[in-house]
Structure formats: structure tokens, C-alpha cells
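dumping the sequnces here before i forget
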Amino acid sequence: MADRFTKSMARNIYYGGSLFFILLFIGLTWHTNEEMPKQDNRENLTESVIRGKNLWEVNNCIGCHTLLGEGAYFAPELGNVYLRYGKSKEAIKGFIKSRPINGIPGRRSMPQFGFDDQELEDIAEFLKYTSEIDTLGWPPNIQG
Amino acid sequence: MKYTSQAVAKPYFIAALALFAGQIIFGLIMGLQYVMGDFLFPEIPFNAARMVHTNLLIVWLLFGFMGSAYYLIPEECETELYSPKLALIMFWIFLVAGALTIVGYLAMPYATLAKVTGNEYFPTMGREFLEQPTITKIGIVIVILAFLFNIGMTLLRGRKTVITLVLMTGLIGLAVFFLFSFYLPDNLVKDKFYWWFVVHLWVEGVWELILGALLAFVLIKVTGVDREVIEKWLYVIVAMSLITGIIGTGHHFFWIGTPAYWQPLGSIFSALEPIPFFMMAVYAFNMVNQRKREHPNKAATLWAMGCAVMAFFGAGVWGFLHTLAPVNYFTHGTQITAAHGHMAFFGAYAMIVMTIISYAMPMLNGRKEANSRKSQVVEMWGFWLMVSGMVFITLFLTGAGVLQVWLQRFSDNPLPFMVVQDQIAVFYWLREVAAVVFTLGFVVYIVSFFVKGEEATINAS
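..and the predicted 3d for all of it:
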């Protein structure tokens, strides 16, 4: 680098630049939180959905699936599974319930979690709520 | 070794490499599960293997960062470490807590682990990379705070350099942003939004400061280039990292229910994120070309240059490939992401830790400056095998990703996920072959530590 560009100039860019963008980011974070209600489907955040989200978490579903594109890439996207299954909670429950305990020879299979009816209902409600979040048109098609 | 307390770095480095070995084994298992779906099912389901794979990565990199800091700080500050004893106590706490967590992942279903560790009282579990039980997370915070206290006190009473300042800023940032892992709102959009405050602001933010500082330290040592020159570069590089990377977080806010303005903002700023990595590669080569001395540890110099180049390709180029919103619309959450993740983590973070280990381990083992010529040759074989293995893992995953995007997202007749997975299986097989080469490279690398012989000197090399 040219000698005219001194170390203290470099230092000032580091401190000034970082500080400016940290403040900008904090401002944008605040604004995003203000805007969130327009898209995040919070009006449908029922007790059942919250229980479903907890089940989603404590069974580490994200360890195989993606949800709104985030997670592991081993199993299908579930952000829109409610729509893919024809808006049928029963179809979702039926799939989860019917997983064989010892898997399927040679194929990937979801574990059998042994959920009771209430838990199945909660998970289905959570996936329904998720599918109603406004993700600006993502995913590109129903296959997720 | 100039200060005896630098020796506490050694157990940290050994633990880091041992956990890295574990990470590789579980990577191989997952690679097989991609093509033989019932492999180890239901004993080790994919999600458990993945948790072990990614969590071991995080833990071994933290071991590596801490070990590096314990080695670097006394030398830069020109004083002994504040408390080597505290560093050793924290080493054992971290190792035991980490090992118990991994055993928990494998020994019982995740839901049972959540129950046993009382997740219901303070839920934080079940999010990607942050799967650790709440109690483990608290343990991580304690260990990191004790670590920051230890190097902070050393820093206060010693010489302050740009390297230590940048390193300290990065490490404090690491601790601060980890606190967001304790925030788990019911609102999924909010949950995802703040989850990135840990994940993105770590790997595309403050970790880059740690990377820059460690690289600068090794470059000063192996090239003998004037500190003033290197520190000026370091300032500019980390400045660019934060200037692009902070708002660059927006490239994760395209499709998760956050406002549309993140699409242009995230696209533009994250498209600039390769710049600091490009500068890092240019500067590493420049410094080595302008070297004022010949250092007998050729392997460490190779790691330093390799790290800068692989970080540029993995984080910079492969990140840019899918970071623009119109592209990401089709690639989001596909094997393209996996390809990028592998080379970026390996190039930027795994390799910087191995750079420091390569530089410091000879001294920690009582040598003057370097291992024997023979040991270095073996180490460099390990380097090239691992790097080629990772390059091909990345290329094959990219191939899988491009096909996946085409078949599942882009064509007129989009196919279901599992149908597509079957069609791209050949790429997964090739990836597994590349992973075996990578593993071989790791074994060769480990063997190099046990190759004896007379210490390499400049005349002999």
C-alpha cells in the first residue's frame, strides 16, 4: 500500500466504519421488528402452535429438514408442507404417525417419534402457521 | 517459545485435533446416509450425526481459537499469561462438558436429552448449530468469560499491539453474540431473525477478526516483514469485513418473513463480502514474497497462504455464487449452501487453526523453530490431500446443488424433493470418495506430528 495511506488512517476506517454500520444495523433491526407484524402471521400464534414449535425443537426436526429454507438438506422443506399436502392437517399427521420404527430398507426414513394425538395436532398447527408466514413468494414452487 | 505460560496452548491444540477427528468420522457417516438411507438407522439417525458433526466443529474451533490466543497473547504482550492455572482448569471443564454433550446426543433421543437437562424451564434447544442443552450453553459462557478475563488481564499489563486489539475485539464479539442463543421467542420469524445474530455475526463478522489477527501474527513471524506494514493491512481487512459483513447479514433475511428491503441491502453488502477475503489472499502472498527472512518452518507458511486462498474461494467466491436475492430465490436451502459451508468453514477457520498449530506446535514440543524436514514434508502431504479432498467435496456438492435447483426449483415440471435426491445420488457418492481422500489427508497430517528427525534449518532446506 502507498506510504501516504498511513496506519492511523486505516485504524480510523476500521473504527469509524464499524461503528457506523453497527449503528445502522441496530436501526434496521428496530425497524424490522416494527414491520414484522405485517408478515409474520403472529395473529395465528395460538397455544397449540407454540406447543408445536416446542415439539419441533425438542425433536430436532431441523437436523434433517429445512424450514423456510434453513436447516439440514437431508429431508424435504416443511415451511410449505401444509400447502403441499393440500391444506390437510390429517395428511401431515398420517405421515408422521406411519413411520416404521426400524426405517425403510435402503432408504431414508423419518424416525417414529411416538407422538400422541394432541402432539400431532400441535405439530400440524405449527406447520400450518408457518405456511401462512409471508415469505415474499418463496419457495418458487410447491415442491419446496 | 518465549514465555513458559504459552505452554497451556498445547492441550487446547491436541483436544482441537482430536475433536476434529470425531467431526470427520461423523461427516463420513452422514455422507453414507445420503446414499444408503438406512445406514445406522435407527441407532444414529441423520439428525444426531449432523449435530455431532457441526457441534464438534464449533467446539474444536473454539478450542483452537483459545489455544491460539493463549499462545499468541503472552508473546505479543511480552509478559506471562495472567493465570495458566485458570486456563488449564477451563480446558478440562470445557472438554468434559463438550464430551458429555456429544455423548448425550448419541446415547439418547434428543427429546429425552431435552427433558433430562431441563429444557422446559429455560428452552434454548433445537435450533441448527445451537442444539446444545441450555446447561451446556451456560457452561460455554462461563468458559469463554474466564478465558476473556485471563487474556484480558494479560493484555492490560502488557504491550498492546494491533493484533491483540483486533483479536480481543473478535473474541469479545464472539462472547457477546453467543448470548443471543439464549433468546428463543415463540414467534418463528423473530426466532430466525435473531438466530442469525449468533450464526452470521460469528462466521461472517467477528470470527473474521480472529482469523485476521491470527494470520497477521503468523505472517509477521514467518516472513519477518515489518509489523507496521502487516498491521496496516490487518486494519483495512478487518474494517472491510465489518463494513460489508454487518449489513451483509441481510442476505439471510430474504425469505423468512422479514421486510423486502433486506433483498437489495443484503444482496449489495454481502456481494462485497469477498473483498476482505480477496485482500487477505493478496496480502498473504505479498508478505511472503517480500519476506525479510527465511523461516525454517515451510509448512506453516504453506498453511498461512493456503488458508487465505481457500477462505477466499470458500467464503468469498462460493458465498457470492448464491448471495444475490434473485439467485438465492432458487438456491436457498439446497446443496449449494452445503457446498459453500464446507469450503468456507474449512478454508477460513479450520485452516487458520491448523496454521497456528503448524507454527506453534514445534516450539510447544521443545524445538527452536521448526520440525524436521521429513516431518514437514509429511505435513505438507497432509495439507495437499486435505485441501484437494475439500475442493472436490465442494465441487461435487455444487454439482448436486445445481442439479437439485434445476430439477426441483427451476424446470417447468418441478419434481418432489426425494425424487430429486435419487437422481443426484451419483454426486453424493463422488462426494463420499472425496471425503475419504480428505480423511486420508488428515491421517497423514496427524502422522507428521510423530515423524522425528533433526530440526530443519535454513541452510539444510
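The first strand of chain A starts at residue 66 and ends at 67.
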